[in-house]
User: Fold this.
Amino acid sequence: MKAKLKNYFTALFFGVIFGAILFHNSMAQSINSIDSVNLMQSKRPTEILVELKPKGDVKVLKVFTILKERIEHRCSNIVKETSDRPQIILSTTDNLPLETYSISQVDKSVHISGGSWQGLLYGVGKFLRTSKYENGFLPSTWRGISSPQGTFRGMYFANHFHNWYYMSSDDELNRYTEDMALWGINAIMTSYPLLNLTGWDDPEADLAMEQTKKILRAAKNAGLATVMGCGNVLFNNTPEELLATPLSDQLGRHGNTGAMVCPSNPVGRDLILKTNVTLLQKFNDIGIDYLCMWPYDEGGCGCDQCSPWGANGFIRISKDIAKAGREINPELKMILSTWTFDTPEQGEWQGLADSLAKDGDWANYIMADSHEDFPRYPLDKGVPGDLPLINFPEISMWGNAPWGGYGAHPMPKRTQRLWNQVKHISKGGLAYSEGIYEDISKVIISQFYWNPNSTSEDAMREYIAYEFSPKVVDDVLTIIDILESSASKKHTNQSVDSSAVESAYSLAKDVNNRLPEWAKNGWRWEILYIRTLLDRERFVGSGLTSQASVEAMQRLIEIYHCLIKTDDPYHHRVRPPLPQTDSGSKK
Assistant:
């Protein structure tokens, strides 16, 4: 009995000692973290000192500049580079995978490190989002290591209709692209609008080229890969004898502007290759990393030699373009889109799978998605060629006409539902965007691509705390939920809840009064606030002709850089429905 008691007390003694050691180590880590915070809280320094490693590295300096601009925009603090008692250290290291970042505590400094300068940028994004900015800068206490699980995390910036991407200044576009990179995006796609032009000598061709380069240049400046869309859609004055046979499109999903060329016609095939090669050559000064072959909307041919398009003519011309493109750039990668395959069923998915099983080395990714639920074939039978699969979520148009016309258009529940269908096999994707009004959806999707098990609410909470204020997170989540419900009900011809619409507007006014000035005057809050106002006016109030509605839409037009008068026949799709706008001459 005495021996048992002795063993018991011995074990108890060492247990207490071991527990004390663990407690001490835990407290030491907490104190180290708190010390860094207390440094800012107690002294409230006007200067934030940052050390760069390696010193003089141009790309690390680029990340520092982004950090500096974001902090100084929100606070009176001045961010300065120094090696003397830094509060923040930015560095790159070979000890982490390229896109991985680490945020740790080194004495009284926060150390943000990346496996490359892009990884460092992602780490700075996490640091910025989890810091606080009211009453001076308060640095993040988040510590850890994070790696993306999606290999391809892209956004498609549509470059047409005089939308925001087309009309924004270089500075605006660069900053917005950097903002996307801070959330973990690693690629930007756009397209040169061939179908809007008559040829390379069209009076608008050079402007269109510069607008397209503006987007791709912004991507490169932020360290992102560039993606160019291409296919069998050429200039709109293509000789009639080369044009594709119109598609059978009973479901109205494929699209046809009449500028598609038949690749089974030898002269047409040569013209497709020549045009796409010339396109790549014209972007040599920037560099294209990926070509994304597009089958439908726009694209396709319904002739006997090309049908079924997705399993026949599309594969042939895609392989030809891949070969020609790699003669210009041997490192060029290929994304094969399957947009609206088998709508209706004609064996396109199976034909593509059979073809890639025999010869699939020329393609790098399969892209799949649809207007509604995710296509069943890759979910039920696997991805053709066993290639990595990426999705193409449409976040701009669903339940939203004109696109962005009433302000912000967050759809977190829909975005989450559609992602849940594919997250177990997806390696990322390219979200389709017509402007900045779906900024919240972009952020949600960026976090899905980083961690497929993250949730839309997780992303929104971090977004709201960073872009608005930690104090208003729950209220803004309530507003977003009401806005999505109203848009969904309107789109599906259900009655919109008038009391909820009133509640969202009332809550937005209250939030507006509690925001710091930098958030209140930022476009992200403005377009969300305007959306609550316009929903109230159109569903409960005096309609879109009321003074409040007109003033709100005029402000949206300023933010989007819309044209009041234009000869662009499609600009109305991206312009708020302000009364007395028309499609006359440009102004």
Notes: The radius of gyration is 27 Å. Residues 152-399+419-444 form a domain with the TIM Barrel fold (CATH 3.20.20.80). The longest strand covers residues 426-433.
